[in-house]
Amino acid sequence: AELAKKGFVRARVDGETVDLAEPPELDKQKKHTIEVIVDRLVVRRDDETRRRLADSLETAVRVAEGLVTISVVGGRGETLSEETLSTSYACPDCGTSLPEITPRLFSFNTPYGACAACSGLGSVPRVDPDRLVPDPTLSIADGAIAMWKKGSTNWRLRQLEQLSKAAKFSMDVPWKKLPAGVRDMILHGSKEKEIKWKWKSEKGEYVWSSSYKGLVPLLTEKYKEVESEEARQELEAFMSLTPCADCGGRRLKAEALAVKVRGQAIDALAEMTLEDASEFFATFRPEPREREIAGKILKEIEDRLGFLNAVGIGYLSLGRGSATLSGGEAQRIRLATQIGSKLMGVLYVLDEPSIGLHPKDNRKLIETLMAMRDLGNTVVVVEHDEETIRAADRVVDLGPGAGVHGGEVVGEGTADELARFPRSLTGKYLSRELTIPVPAQR
């Protein structure tokens, strides 16, 4: 009735076309598929058909909240083909949907993108049997289980004593000599097997039967429930970090990992070196439609990877932690960022950017500095590298000595002009008046 009021004439109910003027009776106990027929038209290659098709699709999207089915019908009314489309990030067949894809979805540093099970860390603490029993040559009675010292009166240890009687094993036998099945039962529980327990107190004796949970499940359960940080740290002494089962150590939600470029998810791209990533995108040949959508983004990616490679850090991976970078690497990353920003009229001061750089990459660095200069910036470099000094437009030599023995301008000009200044030690080395002999043997 509601559809008829909106002007629609026909619908499909469970695959059968019906007239909305006389809608069928529906069984309220069953689930029905109801599809409103928005339009029926003969497709022709003319503007009128295109306009009508566009209008009908817009109406269908609005009525069905983004879900549209297109049926191709033959001359006898038979369905030749059918395709369901969605304007949402959703599969029209299985109903799986994704949130709106934004940059934060691909960051494990935000709750929006981080794996919920491991909070984006990629690993979770799990009880480690080797930490629980660090010395298998000891018996349980002698303190083989690390959380119970010898002579402990812990209730769980007394429970284990009753388990030893029921399962017929000795608490005085070294852990490594206990049967594998017994060790597994102590650690992981008796599963379906019930144990007869006895407990004596001032009020009398209690007898009951139940399965034994096991030390690993007990500690895991306790770790989830504990609120005290001190108690949590005590339990972590018996745990090791293991890859998260939900994300496989990839740190992101499944929704983020489902988005792929050339079959690769973002975590796989982050493991690539900058050189490999640059080649990956340089050889990417998207379809015309993909190029129309992502062309500008791809160009930005290629440019930024190019800048990073140009400053000689192509060996770094995209996912490399900033805390593991050397000072020179961090400085060159900042340098590449500045090149990418294409700012003009800025004064840059760089302190020995060539430190740690392989000689083959030094020329790339110099070309990068020149590119920054050519954008209309002033680049001041504190440097001792000869190739960089010779490439400078102007060199200012401070001396004559180092530290408190220097601080005076002893020469300025081009690299060749420094040799004219008698107090310029740098000029003497550049002109080869002074040299450092290479040792014959090393």
Characterize the structure shown:
The strands form 7 sheets. Strands 2-1-3 form a 3-stranded antiparallel sheet, with no helix packed on it. The chain is flat, with a radius of gyration of 37 Å. It has helices spanning 2-5, 47-63, 129-132, 155-167, 180-188, 215-225, 229-236, 254-257, 266-271, 274-282, 288-310, 327-341, 359-374, 386-391, 425-430; strands at 10-13, 16-19, 34-37, 67-73, 79-86, 123-127, 194-201, 204-211, 239-243, 260-261, 264-265, 347-351, 378-382, 395-399, 408-413. The protein folds into 3 domains: 2-86, Ribulose 1,5 Bisphosphate Carboxylase/Oxygenase, CATH 3.30.190.20; 125-243, Helicase, Ruva Protein, domain 3 (Orthogonal Bundle); 272-393, Rossmann fold. The longest helix has 23 residues, at 288-310. 34% of the residues lie in helices and 18% in strands. The protein has 15 helices and 15 strands. The chain has 442 residues and is of the alpha+beta class. α10 (274-282) packs antiparallel against α11 (288-310) and α11 crosses α12 (327-341). The N and C termini lie far apart (95 Å). The model has no long low-confidence stretch (mean pLDDT 87).
Low-confidence stretches: none
CATH architecture of the largest domain: 3-Layer(aba) Sandwich
Q: What's the CATH class of the largest domain, please?
A: Alpha Beta
Helix content: 25-40%
Strand segment tally: 15
CATH superfamily of the largest domain: P-loop containing nucleotide triphosphate hydrolases
Determine the mean pLDDT.
Answer: 87
- Classification by helices and strands: alpha+beta
Largest β sheet strand count, sense and barrel closure: 3 strands, antiparallel
The CATH topology of the largest domain: Rossmann fold
| Total tally of structural domains | 3
Query: In angstroms, what is the radius of gyration?
Result: 37 Å
Number of discrete helical segments: 15
Rounded to the nearest angstrom, the distance between the terminal CA atoms is 95 Å
Spell out the helices and strands N to C.
Answer: HEEEHEEEHHHEEHHEHEEHHHHEHEHEEH
Strand order of the largest sheet: 2-1-3
- Apparent shape: flat
Name the beta content range.
15-25%
